[in-house]
UniProtKB/TrEMBL annotation:
Its main location: membrane. It comes from the Eukaryota. It comes from Equus asinus (Donkey). This is Calcium voltage-gated channel auxiliary subunit alpha2delta 2. It holds the Pfam family VWA. Keywords: Calcium, Calcium channel, Calcium transport, Disulfide bond, Glycoprotein, Ion channel, Ion transport, Membrane, Metal-binding, Signal, Transmembrane, Transmembrane helix, Transport, Voltage-gated channel. The gene is CACNA2D2. It is found in: Membrane. It is a single-pass type I membrane protein. Residues 294-472 form the VWFA domain. One of its GO terms (cellular component) is voltage-gated calcium channel complex.
């Protein structure tokens, strides 16, 4: 039966082979002359006592061999188990290391991790950290409101009247085509000196603030100059905040006009292409400026909407989607005579990154046809908003309609669905250049507490698709102090290079009075924000006392992780938050769903669960026990969790008060001791403040030794816990060398190395020369073999990693090895812990030969079993290796050993790449179980656009007939084209995709993507098992059996007679999912539990809705049109003056 091709979200294929009772088989012809072995085998411990240095003799031909009986193969399995156990007992040194720890019992104490106390302490520390930022935020917000209230508006203010540091000035000076360079900036820009600050990962100036103004806003407008004038006073408040709390990072005021003033000053990190940063589109600003939203976007796709207008609508919808956060819900529909969703989403869905991408791709497929039917569009939108059977924001409700114009006011629809309470706001957008009467569109917005906007060209899209936030901010402003509540954001990438941060936000209100009647102002001035780096929060969590597999994590109300060891985005886009769900950071199961829900609800809890965990190298799955403990972080929307394996309940704390002993143990870290005591790698931890980090462990060790010659392990600048434990483990592992390793001949037993790694950060490799081929991470907590050994009982084999696309292993000079490791478990006074892992490195070739002998029928020490002419003999893995395949595969399905010499260079590969037929049979007979998951943090290279030589996609291109038609030059289309030319030239992107599309199109740069991961692990079958791969004349017998106390599966099978059974292949390597993971259309039908913010401000009885919009665009003039004609006819691209003004129209 053919195996279906694996796709993203594919389920396990049906059985492809049928397990049968052990059948009788006719004897197969004996093999021909056997190839001589490549090398003699190494000694066997437990085959026969005198069986050492066995020569491998050629087996004579025999008349009849049969497939080995089950009891024979079980006998081979026992011999393999005994050989592995014997080597590990002699060389691993588990028992000896236990004795060493007990002999040194006076040098350490056993401490206990108390989960509830730990998690409550960490939560309290995080709360205190964030509370200090909250106090600074409130001080800033109050000061900003008072400064703006006291400010006197100046109509005649000039650029030369304002002195400030323009953060983009240096970049603009470096660009000879810059706007300010060409026309000469009139503003009195400050020139500052900067000093490097490691806390900010940047050069900063602590005496000044910096100002960033979006590219599409004219710096010299009256609104902007007045904004710069009054916000200058914030500088002293920023400085005073830092004086009181030196740990403060970026303090930022994002103005509703688009101006950003931040402290300390630093040059703006301008992108290589156009800088489209606008603070009003940042995740933290959107969250702070309004309450959550339920939004339905309806787009007119009637026949009159075509060409440029339709392109403008598509781009406008994409820009509108970018103003939504994960607290919002949205759907998008198109309408003409009928309304229908543009995507597969049939109801409101969360406005997360993946759902918004589905919308953006679907919007590009809209086609204009039919007649305009506003009634159909609005009825669809109201039905969507009234659907109470789905998860939604349940706060602000709004309809955003994009159209080119129409005469119908659909008053009957509003009377039916929205009046008299007007709980749904209606925003209307007149798109493109046309001569339609816009009065009906204005009326719709004004009659439904919304706003009317005009988007005549591409240059007006960004400003007009975000100003609706000012309308939504009205109830917040009118609520006054009640709405002045600090909110903490999702994790996102800081635009100034700080890395991953969260931001505390607080809205800033306009406290001035409007008009002679002293009417209260409804404007939100902006949002104040203070960043907290995730690394600063991580420092409050215990690092090394939880063991290699213990960790702290935190989630928000959406279930997204704030802290988690698996939060490692490969690429970050500062325009989007980093949203990794807790159930995607770990392998999802029902217990974790329950824990996640309890944390989101703000409860405390504790639960021990059996769960699956993925190995650090993402090749293996282990079934483990874990203890989860969680508490809410008060005064925030976060909840904190602690995960501990049972064996990490206790840990060792060194107590090296004897300085002589400290010096003695320290000497074993010196490279001069490595030849006799083995090479030492030390974990690159922050042992002392002045220790210079390095990715090269030899250099790091050198830096460490140099520092230790200047300070003592008890120095205040050092982490005494880390240093004492490191030095103690140095001495303990040296004693293991002295008692066990030094007197053993590793070559006699085909070992390349022996090793020990400890919680204290020591990895000791013996002999010294073996360190040259050591490729494991010097930090034991980040080494896959270390973490897996702690989670598994017995011996864990780890073959060298091989990618199917890479060339095979090179078997030269016995350098290819297989790691075998096991945890050292101590029991001290009834307290159990695992402070170390020990192991050996097997010589691949020698053990492959030894494997053949152990899985053979030898009864004498010097020769294989012979088979006489009249007797029937069972095949074995040595004599009959041309007919019989014998292998060891590990619990992930990777080849460890084989009796086939030509497969030795494939050790470490997923076995399906070696023998797909047999691996499929093992899977279908439940020896292996498959686990599929998705990596939402992967990075994908940009895809080629395939539009070389084409005009910019967002720009209308006139035909030759248009150019020859004089009337065309005075048309609205010509004026719209001029605005696009103007916007494109200013933005340096005339010959690129339009900037709005470039920002929203992830293919335009390296972007995050979803990769499907597939791992295999042992299934339910534990006993010896025989089966047949039924394939007619190509059928194969096989036997499989787990080796006790290891992660190995022993398989004996007939070699395939033909390739007709190659019906399918199991895949293990990571694959890209073009659909971005599991089908989004199916996932939204099963939304994960979440809660929105606790506060909602969507209504205030005193709100004045009379200001509900007017058109705003560039008025065309004869001079401009003549210039455009000359520009196009002569082909001379001048640098026109930007005329996009910031305005507060609401």
């Amino acid at each position: 039966m053919a195996v279906p091709a694996q796709t993203c979200g594919a389920s396990r294929p049906g059985p492809a082979r049928t397990a049968l009772p052990w059948p009788g088989r006719s004897p197969r012809p004996g093999p021909g002359p056997r190839r001589p072995a490549a090398r003699p085998p190494r000694p066997l411990l437990l085959l026969l006592p005198p069986l050492l240095l066995l020569p491998l003799l050629a087996a004579p031909g025999a008349s009849a061999y049969s497939f080995p009986q089950q009891h024979t193969m079980q006998h081979w399995a026992r011999r393999l188990e005994q050989e592995i156990d014997g080597v590990m007992r002699i060389f691993g040194g588990v028992q000896q290391l236990r004795e060493i720890y007990k002999d040194n019992r006076n040098l350490f104490e056993v401490q206990e991790n108390e989960p509830q106390k730990l998690v409550e302490k960490v939560a309290g520390d995080i709360e205190s950290l964030l509370d200090r930022k909250v106090q600074a935020l409130k001080k800033l917000a109050d000061a900003a409101e008072n400064f703006q209230k006291a400010h006197r508006w100046q109509d005649n203010i000039k650029e030369e009247d304002i002195m400030y540091y323009d953060a983009k000035a240096d970049a603009e000076l470096d660009d000879p085509e810059s706007e300010d360079v060409e026309r000469g900036s009139k503003a009195s820009n400050l020139r500052l000196d900067f000093v490097e600050d490691s806390n900010f990962k940047n050069k900063v100036n602590y005496s000044y603030t910096a100002v960033q103004i979006p590219t599409d806003i004219y710096k010299g407008s009256t609104v902007i100059l007045n904004e710069l004038n009054w916000t200058e006073a914030l500088e002293n408040v920023f400085i005073e905040n830092r004086r009181q709390d030196p740990t403060l990072l970026w303090q930022v005021f994002g103005s509703a006009t688009g101006v950003t003033r931040y402290y300390p000053a630093t040059p703006w990190r301008a992108p290589k292409k156009i800088d489209l940063y606008d603070v009003r589109r940042r995740p933290w600003y959107i969250q702070g400026a309004s309450s959550p939203k339920d939004m339905v976007i309806i787009v007119d796709v009637s026949g009159s909407v075509s060409g440029l207008t339709l392109k403008l609508m598509k781009t406008s919808v994409c820009e509108m989607l970018d103003t939504l956060s994960d607290d919002d819900y949205v759907n998008v529909a198109s309408f003409n005579e009928k309304a229908q969703p543009v995507s597969c989403f049939t109801h409101l869905v969360q406005a997360n990154v993946r759902n918004k991408k589905v919308f953006k791709e679907a919007v590009q497929g809209m086609v204009a046809k039919g007649t305009t039917g506003y009634k159909a569009g609005f009825e669809y939108a109201f039905d969507q908003l009234q659907n109470s059977n789905i998860t939604r924001a349940n706060c602000n409700k709004m309809i955003m309609m994009f159209t080119d114009g129409g005469e119908d006011r659909v008053q009957d629809v509003f009377e039916k669905y929205n009046w008299p309470n007007r709980t749904v706001r209606v925003f209307t957008f007149s798109v493109g250049q046309h001569n339609y009467d816009v009065t009906p569109l204005q009326w719709m917005a004004c009659a439904n507490k919304g706003y009317y906007f005009e988007i005549p060209s591409i240059g007006a899209i960004r400003i007009n698709t975000q100003e609706y936030l000012d309308v939504l901010g009205r109830p917040m402003v009118l609520a006054g102090k009640e709405a002045k509540q600090v909110q903490w954001t999702n994790v996102y990438e800081d635009a100034l290079g700080l890395g991953l941060v969260v931001t505390g936000t607080l809205p800033v209100f306009n406290l001035t009075q409007d008009g002679p009647g002293e009417k209260k102002n409804q404007l939100i001035l902006g949002v104040m924000g203070i960043d907290v780096a995730l690394n600063d929060i991580k420092r409050l969590t215990p690092n090394y006392t939880l063991g290699a597999n213990g960790y702290v994590f935190a989630i928000d109300l959406n279930g997204y992780v704030l802290l988690h060891p698996n939060l490692k985005p490969q690429t970050t886009n500062f325009r989007e938050p980093v949203t990794l769900d807790f159930l995607d950071a770990e392998l999802e199961d029902e217990n974790k769903e329950e824990i996640r829900r309890s944390m989101i609800d703000g409860n405390k809890g504790h639960k021990q669960i059996r769960t699956l965990v993925k190995s650090l190298d993402e090749r293996y799955i282990d079934e483990v026990m874990r203890n989860y403990t969680w508490v809410p972080i008060r005064s925030t929307n976060y909840s904190l969790g602690l995960v501990l394996p049972p064996y990490s309940t206790f840990y060792l704390q060194a107590n090296l008060s004897d300085q002589i002993l400290q010096v003695k143990y320290f000497e074993f870290l010196l490279p001069s001791s490595f030849e006799s005591e083995g090479h030492v790698f030390i974990a690159p931890r922050e042992y002392c403040k002045d220790l210079n980090a390095s990715d090269n462990n030899t250099e790091f060790l050198k830096n460490f030794i140099e520092l230790m010659e200047k300070v003592t392990p008890d120095s205040k600048q050092c982490n005494n816990f880390l240093l004492h434990n490191l030095i103690l483990d140095t001495g303990i592992t040296q004693q293991l060398v002295e008692r066990v390793w030094r007197d053993q001949d590793l070559n006699t037993y085909s070992l390349l190395a022996v090793f020990a790694a400890t919680d204290g950060g020591i990895t000791r490799i013996f002999p010294n020369k073996a360190a040259e081929d050591w490729t494991e991470n010097p930090e034991p907590f980040n080494a896959s073999f270390y973490r897996r050994s702690l989670d598994n009982h017995g011996y864990v084999f780890k073959p060298p990693h091989q990618d199917a696309l890479l060339r095979p292993l090179e078997l030269e000079n016995d350098t290819v090895g297989i790691l075998v490791s096991t945890a050292v478990e101590l029991s001290l006074g009834g307290r159990t812990l695992r402070p170390a892992v020990v192991g050996v490195k097997l010589d691949l070739e020698a053990w492959a030969e030894k494997f053949k002998v152990l899985a053979s029928n030898r009864t004498h020490q010097d020769q294989p079993q012979k088979c006489g002419p009249s007797s029937h003999c069972e095949m074995d893995c040595e004599v009959n290796n041309e007919d019989l395949l014998c292998i060891l595969i590990d619990d992930g399905g990777f080849l460890v050993l084989s009796n086939q010499n030509h497969q030795w260079d494939q050790v470490g590969r997923f076995f399906s790449e070696v023998d797909a037929n047999l691996m499929m049979a093992l899977y279908n007979n439940s020896f292996y179980t498959r686990k599929e998951s998705y990596d939402y943090q992967a990075a994908c290279a940009p895809q080629p656009q395939g539009n070389l030589g084409a005009a910019p996609r967002g720009v209308f291109v006139p035909t030759v007939a248009d150019f020859l038609n004089l009337a065309w030059w005075t048309s609205a289309a010509a004026w719209s084209l001029f605005q696009q030319l103007l916007y494109g030239l200013i933005s340096h992107s005339w010959f690129q995709a339009d900037p709005a599309e470039a920002e929203s199109n992830p293919e335009a740069r390296e972007s995050s993507c979803v990769m499907k991961q597939t791992q295999y692990y042992f299934g339910s079958v534990n006993a010896s098992y025989n089966a047949i791969i039924d394939c007619g004349n190509c059928s194969r017998l096989f036997h499989a059996q787990r080796l006790t106390n290891t992660n190995l599966l022993f398989v004996v099978a007939e070699k395939p007679l033909c390739s007709q059974c190659e019906a399918g292949r199991l895949l293990q390597k990571e694959t890209h999912c073009p659909a971005d993971g599991p089908e989004q259309c199916e996932l939204v039908q099963r939304p994960r539990y979440r809660r929105g913010p606790h506060i909602c401000f969507d209504y205030n009885a005193t709100e004045d809705t009379s200001d509900c919009g007017r058109g705003a665009s560039f008025p065309p003039s004869l001079g401009v049109l003549v210039s455009l004609q000359l520009l196009l006819l002569l082909g001379l691209p001048p640098r026109p003056q930007p005329q996009v003004y910031a305005s507060r129209r609401l």
